[in-house]
């Protein structure tokens, strides 16, 4: 009896296996059958342990026979992942082509890459990426790639306040070399300075004489030319998108190349920030954000860590997924003024969460395309192109414009309790002015009026709505006889206009007060011009260049002056920045750089004898 039951069971198993083998292997049906058998095995496993092992063996025996898969039936890497359900390794079935996690899709060709999940920290940036070769100037009719690149660049600036410029292979190699050289430079300085390498900044200006003693990162001149070329090309592309000539802003920039003995207005800043000191003021902005003052700014870094505020007030990581050959483009205050607000200034800040995860620190290069100090920011080309200039964008010199920005920063710094609020108001102030201004004329809505649909208009837009008898916002027909004054909007516009006028008057008064104070300080420092003493108020230092070139001096030294130079006579060979001189020791012929406080004029014998003879008389009188 037992033998007959065993023979019947074997016959049933053979019939089941032959029935499964007669059908072709279909990924969908196979996955369904596998899921069903796995479900049955799981259900029986909940009953008792003994039956679970039997059902598991039955489920394994009910699978289709293993066949050699063809190229179209090879499993994807995702199908070879281990099962999520735990279990002993001895009872875990081997993965096969007909046993996958989830439904299978048609196989990909061998040339198609398998999608890999991207981490959140390295997600693709929403910024448009434009090649430098596509926006470079050339003679002839504009080609389609140039027009597409100009539109993509300006569209990204309008939507995200930033864009990415991709350099060529040669320029990318220069940028990579510059970043590595800057990192090595700051590490070397940290080791020489006692190991304090939390942060570092080096500013480079073209045209400034560099001697052998001046320690600076290498490749700065090459990086300055490379990033300067990219910034000028981007500025020309912005001008073309505004229906202006490509060279409309060239009168604001330095000549190419620079004239002899002239220092560039633009500046290249190399900075290094460690995880312990993520914020370096003036390089990557503070935690509350910085607004660039110049025309354009280009950033290049070895690791991501720079956030930009979009027009909606949201901060996002702008340099995620960027390589050393990618330059992050931001617009500044000077460009915003000369374009009458059509290209607003961008706010940026360092991202401390990304710097904290990077133990090796972050090295960055920032190129600031600055206008000349004697240039004038004028919006007349914008008017000639047909754009409407809002109120407040008047012609102003670059020096006065920068003084006004510095005055605003001084006011913000004088209120530490409202520092964050004031900086936030700087970012939201243009949007508030745009809401309270007429979009056509730019005048404040001091005549704001409700129309029948519920929207408010004023100025030239109100006249257009009345002439069309249709609302430009909701496209509804309106009744021109039912116009109601919007008292609240008129009061808000009048208040903002009054505050704007008061600020302009305050800046003018502050600028006048600074000039008077400067004239007064010049008169008080004039007697001390020879020795470079400190003024009586203790706030301003004396003249930084009390000595002239080829003048013989004595090194009196300070605590940082090497002992071998103290008391030696030297000749001044050239002047440096911030009151420093390059001297040549007469005794040894060595060159050394010292500040004016470490030097003393050589007194003539007549003066010294006169002082010695007058000293006893003074003592006798006392």
UniProtKB/TrEMBL annotation:
Record's compositionally biased regions (Basic and acidic residues): 516-537
UniProt-annotated stretches for the region Disordered: 14-112, 515-537
Skewed-composition ranges (Low complexity): 28-59, 72-90
Family annotation (SUPFAM superfamilies): Clavaminate synthase-like, RING/U-box
Biased composition (Polar residues): 60-71
UniProt domain PUB 62/63 C-terminal: residue ranges: 543-601
Protein name per UniProt: Isopenicillin N synthase
Record organism: Trema orientale (Charcoal tree)
């Amino acid at each position: 009896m037992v033998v007959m039951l065993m023979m019947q069971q074997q016959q049933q198993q053979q019939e089941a296996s032959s029935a499964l083998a007669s059908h072709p292997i279909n990924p969908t049906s196979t996955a369904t059958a596998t899921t069903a058998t796995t479900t049955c095995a799981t259900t029986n496993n909940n009953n008792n342990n003994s039956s679970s092992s039997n059902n598991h063996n039955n489920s394994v025996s009910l699978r289709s026979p293993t066949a050699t898969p063809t190229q179209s039936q090879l499993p994807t890497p995702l199908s070879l992942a281990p099962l999520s359900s735990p279990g002993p390794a001895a009872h875990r079935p081997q993965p096969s082509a007909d046993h996958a996690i989830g439904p299978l899709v048609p196989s990909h060709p061998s040339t198609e890459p398998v999608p890999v999940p991207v981490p959140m920290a390295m997600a693709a940036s929403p910024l448009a990426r434009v090649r430098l070769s596509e926006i470079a100037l050339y003679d002839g009719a504009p080609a389609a790639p140039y027009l597409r690149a100009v539109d993509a660049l300006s569209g990204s600036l309008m939507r995200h306040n930033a864009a990415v410029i991709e350099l060529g292979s040669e320029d990318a190699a220069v940028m990579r070399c510059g970043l590595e050289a800057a990192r090595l430079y700051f590490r070397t300085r940290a080791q020489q300075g006692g190991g304090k390498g939390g942060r570092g900044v080096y500013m480079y200006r073209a045209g400034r004489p560099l001697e052998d003693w001046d320690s600076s990162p290498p490749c700065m001149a090459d990086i300055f030319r490379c990033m300067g070329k990219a910034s000028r090309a981007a500025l020309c592309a912005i001008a073309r998108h505004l229906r202006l000539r490509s060279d409309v802003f060239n009168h604001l920039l330095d000549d190419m190349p620079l004239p002899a003995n002239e220092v560039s207005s633009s500046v290249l800043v190399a900075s290094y920030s460690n995880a312990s000191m993520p914020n370096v003021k003036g390089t990557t902005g503070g935690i509350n954000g910085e607004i660039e003052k110049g025309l354009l700014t280009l950033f290049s870094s070895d690791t991501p860590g720079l956030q930009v505020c979009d027009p909606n007030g949201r901060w996002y990581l702008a340099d995620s997924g960027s390589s050393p050959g990618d330059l992050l483009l931001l617009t500044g205050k000077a460009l915003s003024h000369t374009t009458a607000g059509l290209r607003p200034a961008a706010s940026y800040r360092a991202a401390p969460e990304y710097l904290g995860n990077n133990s090796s620190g972050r090295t960055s290069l920032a190129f600031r395309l600055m206008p000349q100090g004697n240039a004038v920011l004028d919006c007349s080309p914008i008017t000639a192109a047909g754009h409407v200039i809002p109120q407040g964008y008047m012609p102003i010199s670059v020096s006065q414009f920068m003084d006004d920005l510095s005055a605003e920063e001084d006011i913000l710094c004088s209120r530490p309790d409202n520092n964050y609020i004031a900086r936030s108001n700087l970012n939201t102030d243009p949007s508030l002015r745009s809401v309270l201004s007429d979009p056509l004329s730019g005048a404040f809505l001091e005549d704001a009026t409700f129309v029948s649909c519920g929207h408010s208009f004023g100025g030239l837009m109100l006249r257009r709505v009345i002439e069309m008898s249709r609302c430009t916002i909701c496209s509804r027909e309106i009744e021109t006889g039912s116009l109601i004054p919007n008292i609240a909007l008129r009061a808000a516009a009048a208040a903002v206009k009054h505050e704007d006028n008061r600020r302009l008057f305050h800046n003018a008064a502050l600028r006048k007060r600074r000039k008077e104070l400067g004239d007064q300080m010049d008169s008080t420092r004039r007697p001390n011009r020879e020795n470079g003493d400190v003024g009586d108020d203790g706030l301003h230092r004396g003249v930084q260049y009390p000595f002239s070139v080829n003048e013989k001096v004595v090194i009196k030294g300070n605590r940082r002056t090497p002992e071998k130079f103290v008391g030696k006579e030297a000749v001044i060979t050239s002047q440096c920045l911030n009151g420093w001189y390059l001297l040549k020791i007469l005794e040894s012929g060595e060159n050394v750089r010292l500040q004016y406080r470490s030097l003393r004029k050589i007194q003539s014998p007549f003066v010294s004898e006169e002082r010695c003879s007058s000293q006893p008389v003074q003592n006798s009188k006392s």
